[in-house]
Write a structure and sequence with these properties.
Elements lengths: L9 E9 L11 E10 L4 E9 L1 H11 L2
Antiparallel strand pairs: 1-2, 2-3
Length: 66
């Protein structure tokens, strides 16, 4: 059962990309996120937004550097 169905028959969903390998005693960090509304009538995701955190951007740049 969805937590909240909006007046326009959508459910807001958020995904988080979390760091999986942390050092001892460190908390996992959020690297990127995505948010969308799931339209229950059309059975499709709408209003999709994505982004990365500062930590995610730093890691992305480190991977691309030769």
């Amino acid at each position: 059962m969805p937590y909240l169905v909006n007046d326009d028959s959508t459910i807001t969903v958020t995904w988080l990309a979390m760091e999986t390998r942390t050092g001892a005693g460190e908390k996992p960090t959020v690297l990127a996120w995505a948010r969308a509304d799931y339209d229950l009538v059309r059975k499709a995701f709408v209003n999709i937004q994505t982004g990365t955190t500062a930590t995610g951007e730093d890691l992305k740049q480190a991977v691309k550097a030769p």
